[in-house]
Write a structure and sequence with these properties.
This protein is mostly helical. It has one domain. Helices cover about 35% and strands about 10% of the residues. A hairpin with a 4-residue loop joins strand 2 and strand 3. Helix 1 packs across helix 3. The longest helix is centred in the middle third of the chain and has 20 residues. The mean pLDDT is about 85. This is PT domain-containing protein.
């Protein structure tokens, strides 16, 4: 083959399989709006991952637990759209339950120094603005996503 006469250098008339001058479906100057469901799921993921990171519990299998909960809760909110405000607390509870089955209690209460170690619980169980609560001391410890502030 003659390197000075490469057929790939010749112009092509008609459609090509390669890049075009612009996107096929039009310009992308405007951002694509994100639905309330997706915003809530992204926020829930970020909040729970922040709490996991604050307690140094972010192994790959634990992140997979978060993702599994996100998939389940996406379906749940698609069935009951009014529940979108409850997603963060539900994802936190789902991950807490999955961790209990696989590893043990999480997150451990940082308030009670004496007695047996115990996990915090999410309140409200089904409601907006979820918090980690110690039932033994009867106190709110932190909002979901803010365990790192302790």
């Amino acid at each position: 083959m003659d390197p000075d006469n490469d057929p790939m250098d010749e112009p092509v008339d008609g459609p090509t399989d390669g890049p075009t001058d612009g996107p096929i479906d039009g310009p992308r100057d405007e951002p694509v709006p994100i639905s309330a469901l997706e915003q809530a799921l992204h926020a829930a993921r970020a909040l729970v991952l922040a709490d996991l990171a604050a307690r140094e519990v972010v192994a790959a299998d634990v992140v997979s637990m978060v993702e599994e909960s996100i998939v389940q809760r996406r379906w749940w909110v698609e069935q009951w759209p009014e529940g979108v405000a409850y997603v963060a607390g539900l994802v936190a509870q789902d991950v807490q339950d999955a961790l209990l089955e696989a590893y043990g209690r999480w997150p451990l209460c940082p308030v009670c120094a004496a007695g047996d170690p115990h996990a915090l619980e999410v309140e409200p169980e089904l409601g907006p603005d979820p918090h980690w609560v110690c039932h033994q001391a009867g106190v709110k410890v932190a909002a979901v996503g803010n365990l790192g502030s302790l």
